[in-house]
Amino acid sequence: MTSEATHRTRVRPAPESPSPASVDSRRLLGPEGQLLIEHRGRLYQLRETRNGKLILTG
Q1: Which residue of 29, 40, 49, 58 has the lowest C-beta tally within 10 Å?
Q2: How far apart are the C-alpha atoms of 37 and 15, rounded to whole Å?
């Protein structure tokens, strides 16, 4: 009688990815209501609109 070898592949759970950082917008925007961000040599402005939404322009 021939026995068949069963091959089991161990499945490792994916490493947990870190959750994104969370920062209150008031800390970023400050009293001016805007933040300048330099990204890859370009300057962007993050600001709060009159309706309380955020807009990023570059």
Answers
A1: 40
A2: 31
